[in-house]
Amino acid sequence: MNTATEIKDMVREKYATIATQSKEDNAVSCCGVGGCATVDYTIFAEDYSKLKGYVSDADLALGCGVPTEFAQIKEGDTVVDLGSGAGNDCFVARAIVGEGGKVVGIDMTDVMIDKARENADKLGFNNVEFRHGDIEHIPMAAERADVVISNCVLNLVPNKLKAFTEMYRILKSGGHFSVSDVVLRGELPDALRKDAEMYAGCVSGAIQLNDYLQMLDAAGFRNISVQKEKPITLPHDTLAQYLSEEQIADMQASGVGIFSVTVYGEKPMAAACCGTDCCN
Predict the structure, then answer these.
(1) Closest Cα partner for 93 from 113, 76, 79, 106?
(2) d(CA 182, CA 225)
(3) What's 125's domain CATH number?
(4) DSSP three-state, residue 62
């Protein structure tokens, strides 16, 4: 796990495999990666089943929050979902924006895009679109989205500041985002932080919460706030795959924590131009 390209290739390969598994298989395997047979999906994922617009075939139990719950989406909005997977959050967002709105899902895994498009076609949705793309280079023109959402994906992006800058670029003036993600408080042991399986499993790609918020500020966002925070406790048998008993005890005693957070931020309104000189 050295280069950004290697990270992306590994994540793409893992999530292509996940796309072919059932929700039940993914639910018991550390964000769908496998090898953690006793992990209950509620450690990361939330229950979508009662939400308007829910499509069971699109729910792979891969999220770590419900960003649509906090995203202040309105009827008629254009919503962009970064790392849209099989379309779970997109279909929930569509139920909110209505026929007059639009939802665009972006994902870098071909199999996920195919699965999402298949789900949309079966439902006859003509205002939900899925595009293949890298979140560090979003395939969309500037200032097209009213709202950006994402669910347990941005932590997997090697260059998070670039991804946040791209979020800023595609948002309209006055637009906003609400993203659910995994962050840290304190430093994870190297074995957890570096292991490829744990990276794709939503843990080792995470950064410190303060660094996360500072990057959003550096990208230009304002009124940044944490809308929801939930501690994540990895089961002992999961930790034991990477750490000795002594290391586990030291980690737990140190106060190091893994958290699911939902974060909100706004793109400031552009200054009004009232004449030939005011925008110089």
Answers:
(1) 79
(2) 15
(3) 3.40.50.150
(4) coil
For residues 53 and 95, the answer to whether their CB atoms sit within 8 Å is: yes
Q: How many domains does the chain have?
A: 1
Pull the structure tokens for residue 62: 């891969």
Tokens of 250: 């030291």
Residues of the chain with pLDDT under 50: 1, 27-42, 196, 199-200
Hey, what are 279's tokens? 């925008």
Contacts 24+ apart (CB under 8 A), 187-193: 187/256, 188/251, 188/256, 188/258, 189/242, 189/243, 189/247, 189/251, 191/242, 191/243, 191/247, 192/239, 192/242, 192/243
CA-wise closest residue to 263 among 207, 206, 205, 223: 223
Report the pLDDT value the prediction gives residue 62, as an integer from 0 to 100. 78
For residue 85, being part of any structural domain is answered with: yes
| Range of the structural domain that residue 95 is part of | 4-234+245-266
Helix (H) or strand (E) run with residue 95 in it = helix 88-97
pLDDT one-digit tens code per residue, 118-149: 999 999 999 999 999 999 999 999 999 999 99
Give DSSP secondary structure letters for 5-38.
HHHHHHHHHHHHHHHTS-HHHHHTSGGGTSS-TT
- Given the structure tokens 């990057």, which residue do they identify? 215
d(Cα 218, Cα 44) in Å, to the nearest integer?
A: 28
Q: For 50, how many CA atoms within 13 A lie in the half-sphere containing its CB?
A: 3
